[in-house]
Amino acid sequence: MKCGNCGSTMVYDVARQGLVCDHCGSYKPLPKSQDDQETGQVDYDSVPHRTGSDWGSAKSLVTCKSCGAKLIIDAEHMSGMCPFCGSSVVLTLEDSDCGILPSAIIPFTITREQVEEKFYRWNKFAFWSPEKFRKGKVLGNLTPVYVPYWTFDADTKTSYQGEFGYTTGSGDSEKTNWYGRSGVVEKRIEGVCICGSRRFHDDKLLNSVISFKIGDLIAYTPEALSGMTAEKSTISMDAAMEEAKATGFKKEIINAARKDQDADDCAKISMETQYSNVKFRYVLVPVWLAGCRYGGKIYNIVASGHNWQGNCRRPVSVPKIVGFTVAFLALIFVTVFLGVVAFVLPLAFMALIAAFIIYLIMFMRTFRDQNRIEREMQDRAVE
Predict the structure, then answer these.
(1) What is the pTM of this model?
(2) What residue segments make up the domains of the chain, in order of their start?
(3) Could you tell me where the beta strands, DSSP code E, fall in 23-174?
């Protein structure tokens, strides 16, 4: 994205939530999404296999030689740090097919500094982790990445049959009577989300952090992606739709059938569903990622770019474990072989209890301060 003032490159600035020129400092806000755009909803049957789309600015698809991650970046940037594995290898150009054009995007609103501050507050109590991890030194390769998601809406008409339970009584006299029932139910189902990244699809760490509402989305604009990295979807739209039918849609339809029969519970439901007026969005969701290598393994740090959630996998410091074990064995040696068991052990036990209480108090204070700071930041963001 070129600056209209001096012709230099403009990139998305998270703190200002707009484009900033890296030469003259000119600022350009993101274009506003119109309500009637419905954040880029597209008819599912109209573009079933649309690829190689124009993303609105020059992009390249590159592959990390170390872990194989497929990333979409600005065409002029051909090297950097891989956010998934922390490798500093040069990213090599693969091809120019960046895949289907995104329908919607959630721009980054949380800065690198805010993520680093939150990481340090939480991990300063992780005493068993290596010091470079506990003190946040591993955040040097913290990278903003857009993770792909699919969302689906559809009108459904379902013929169902199964067992429906009706509960009577309460307490010890509570009883559920089951009856075979069948029927037809119609329901419009919206906002079924499927992660489009095979790498993160079943990743509990990412799923504990990523959450968004349809109201968080704006129609895709290339300005929000300027200077940023996006992972290419590795789960196709058709595969995502089939998963949506087997999970989110199925859950909603079963619940609708239970309500249709005015039942308290249901089981062994079989059904046939017709889908119509199906719409989808290809959504880019903001995530801060860092990969820390320790002991031959990769420990990921994940933080949402918009909802203040964060999580990480912590390595355990072998030197600290060895040091604690040696100290503990030395204490046993002193107390047993020097004949001071009755004097030292009670003191040691009391010291451990006191240390634990102090640790718990400090942790709870940090937890309280963390929640207060996040509420204040969220309130300012709303304003």
Answers:
(1) 0.74
(2) 1-30, 31-316, 317-383
(3) 27-29, 42-43, 59-63, 70-74, 92-95, 104-105, 143-168
